[in-house]
Amino acid sequence: MVPDNLLLRRYAEEGEEEAFAELVHRYVDMVYSIALRLTQRDAPLAQEVSQTVFTDLARKARVLVGHPTLSGWLHTSTRYAAHKALRGEQRRRRHEQEASTMQANDSTTTAGADWEQLQPLLDEAVADLREKDRDVVVLRFFQNKSHREIGDALGLGEEAARKRVDRALEKLRSHFAQRSVAMAATPLAAVLAANSVQAAPAGLAASFSAQALAVNATALTAPSILSKAILSIMKTKTAVLIAALAIIATIPIVVQHRRIIQLQDELTAKSGKGSAAATRLGANHKVTLADILKIPDHNTRLRELIDLASGLDAAGVRSLLDQLAKSPFGSDTNIEESILLDRLLHMDPQSALAWSQALVNSTQRKQALDTLFSTWAGMDPAAALNAAGQINDAVLRKTLQNDVLTDVANYDPQKALGLLQSLPEMNQSRNLRNLYKSVFTTWATLDSSAASAAAMKLPATRMRNFAIQNVANGWAEADPQGALAWSATLPAGDLRNGAQSAALANLAQLDAQAAIQFASNVTSIQQKNADLATIAQSWGQSDPSAALTWTDQNISGQAHDAAVQSILGQLALTDPSSAQTYIGQMADGPLRDQAITQVALNEADSNPQETLSWLQSIAGTSTPSTAVMAQMIEIVNDMASVDPQTTANYVQSMQGQPAFNRLVGQLGMNWASVDSQAALTWAESLPANGGYASAIQGVTAAIAIENPQLAWNDVAQIPPGEAQTQAMAVVAIKWSAQDPVQAAQALASIPTGTSLNYATTNVAKSWLAMDPTAASAWVNTLPAGDARDGAVAQIINNEGANSPAAAFNWALTINNEGTQQVQLNNLVQTWAKRDPAAATAAVKSTNLSAQEQTLLLNTIQKQSTK
């Protein structure tokens, strides 16, 4: 049998896909079985994880050629990928979790009961072994290798391999015993041999291999392959061409590079029989783009387009693109546009760029530029990067530069670094950080050691530190233990701390206790607290309940609050009931308000009524806090937009609760904005002590926003009383935003009282913003009293800064002595800072009592001497 490393070498260096397919065939059962265990027997998710692992294998083939045991790397990679996939699935699977975890293991082995105990612990135990021990376990029990085969793979004798397996088994047995699963080494071996690997579903190996190769095509060869392939295809007119285009039409073009290359020899070896469109239309008819776009079969349409473009120069291809952009088929011609744009790019790159930038529609322009630069980066990355730097749109410019460097980094990180270093730093300083991030994060996921070595060789500048930090981020995502060990080699300081934090965050998701143990040994108290908070937040993504309990016991201060907020957000997704219980025990404050908002936002979509009840229970018999009330109002608005009548029935059931009137008013406003008559009918049906006044206010406020006169007429029909008075005030206030003169006239109908005072103040405020002179004249006509005093206060606020003397004179007209004294004192404080002499003269000229004058003059004296 051909060794794994030789198959990898054939694929990495020669592009031999059959070699990669053989590797997938060898390991698909093992990888799938590990993924199945770690995803709680979720078969679709296990297949996604397996696909990710084999795609990574294809991307990292060059690096892994020298790896001693591929099976050990695959075990570790599968474990990381499964944990990452589970984190991403938590929201979607929250309501499915119970069902998915109850799926039974169909194992028919006699050791079934033992396997049920071992299964959840197995991969964690194997991961905890030293690499040499892990390799022999994977080879023996996951790959069913004999001791002799293990010895051959590891350069050991058969007996030495046997002893190493026995020692590794004993370590596993000890690991399980510490977790209350007791078993002797011999039956443990039997259980592992019988159950560790099960057959993957039929066809998965071929599927994984094909997809990994397709997705990874750009990692092994530059994107220009597609361009060359299309140019080659343009020379053919055969049935094979139709088959090739069928593939292109169903899968994104960018992942078809290698498949198209494989077809080139066949396509160029065959001769065509002429255009089907031309035959159908007649020998003397010249086929046009319009003719081609009318062809119903997509594959035939693409073939005809390639035939047409193959005989044109750059100007002709650009003309076709112009016609295509104006065609009525819209987004249905994306592939056609890509083919023509690719053709033009090879003939005249600047023309292709100019055409793409000239597109009026921003979405089409971005799509065309994405397509253009994706291909250009493979043809001539330096030219592509330079052209991207000339794009006027700053956001798009940064995006395209980033995409070019990322594309190049995927197949040649060293070249990407060279391109990055060629950029003028002074002109690109704001964007350089993002570009360094793209190159070094991508590089670190492909070859962490090479990326770290390259980063360390950079000149000692800010960008070197930034590159090292992003190596740490990429490395930590792929191998947190390795990244943690590497971070210890960095110089003490922020650089090491940042790398260490990135590694600990990723490690905590896989093994929180190992991360905690490491952080506990950090000598700096400040750094230790920061690391522990990072671990808690990361741990919270996989086990929020345990992380929350640990955080409360081990972290304090701002680090504790930051960790709790992050963990509660995750707990709200996976176990909202536990999150609600925890919040109920929290002390009042900003942290509790943030937690309430997180849980309410998450739960309101699926359980609005239950969430509303929970929020009310938090408030108890007290008026809800601002945060709680904001969420309650948001939920009522969302419910009312779907079914206002059902929402009304539910809100009415909350009568007697502190938030009841606010919610009734909000419901009335929301409902009236959609159906004012139905909302008004509902509001009028409510009893006086059952939210009637609040509902009327809400409904009329919504109507007044659109038609204040109609709202006023509706209010006039309401029986006299407090509800009508309050509604009139609301309508007058809304009216003043459109027509303050009419609003001011309406105030005459409102009885004296709190509602009139409030309405008068707000009408004055709106009118002063539009026409201060007319508004002041109106206020001057108002009778003395609290309503006028409120309007005068608005004039003082409006004029005090620019015309303190005028504002002072208005303050003297205030009827309420207490209110007058407050306004005068505030005015002279400000006035004295600018012109104490004028302020003093003004006070002395008034008819105020000697005591009042003395108080104001003392205020002026204090302010003028500061």
Describe the structure.
The chain is extended, with a radius of gyration of 37 Å. It has 866 residues and is mainly α. The chain has 53 helices and no strands. Helix 27 (425-446) packs parallel to helix 29.
Would you report the number of β strands? 0
Shape: extended
Helical/strand content category: mainly alpha
Mean pLDDT: 78
- Discrete helix count: 53
The biggest beta sheet is recorded as: none
Radius of gyration: 37 Å
Distance between the termini: 93 Å
Short description:
77% of the residues lie in helices and 0% in strands. The chain contains 53 helices and no strands.
Structural topology:
Elements: H1 4-14, H2 17-38, H3 43-59, H4 61-64, H5 70-93, H6 97-101, H7 112-128, H8 131-142, H9 147-154, H10 158-177, H11 185-195, H12 204-215, H13 217-220, H14 224-233, H15 239-250, H16 257-269, H17 276-281, H18 289-293, H19 298-310, H20 314-325, H21 334-347, H22 349-357, H23 362-379, H24 381-388, H25 394-411, H26 413-422, H27 425-446, H28 448-456, H29 462-478, H30 480-487, H31 494-510, H32 512-520, H33 525-542, H34 544-554, H35 557-574, H36 576-584, H37 590-604, H38 608-619, H39 626-642, H40 644-652, H41 660-672, H42 676-685, H43 692-706, H44 708-716, H45 722-736, H46 740-746, H47 754-770, H48 772-781, H49 786-799, H50 804-811, H51 817-834, H52 836-844, H53 850-864
Helix pairs in contact: 1-2, 2-3, 2-5, 2-12, 3-5, 3-12, 8-10, 9-10, 14-16, 14-23, 15-19, 19-21, 20-21, 21-22, 21-23, 22-23, 23-24, 23-25, 24-25, 25-26, 25-27, 26-27, 27-28, 27-29, 28-29, 29-30, 29-31, 30-31, 31-32, 31-33, 32-33, 33-34, 33-35, 34-35, 35-36, 35-37, 36-37, 37-38, 37-39, 38-39, ...
